[in-house]
Sequence to fold (120 residues):
Amino acid sequence: MSRFRLAAAGVICVLGLLPACTAAGEMAASPYLGAWRLLRAMDCARCHGRDYEGWAAPSILDFVRSQPRARFDQVMLDGEPGRGMPGYRGQEQVADRLDEIYEYFVARASGRIGGGRPLP
Fold:
């Protein structure tokens, strides 16, 4: 980051114009960024599309809009092997962060955040 941009970000933080800033003068990450990174690492986009709106597999956003939370948990943890959906119960990083993953999809499905890397 250039000195000018770093200084400008620091001034904005000091003035309280941004909701949260790091010590380096940059905005704190979106609360959805960790879930987004995990979903990218798991490569869910390979089947569900780049922004999870459907591709070879159904839209996760439509699923979250139409199904109860318990059904989301069931599919994520146990999968649907007959439809090609693996279960992630045995992967701690998924099972332990299921609430965070669900909240990311709810935010996407409701339009609170857009596709791509979540911004603060």
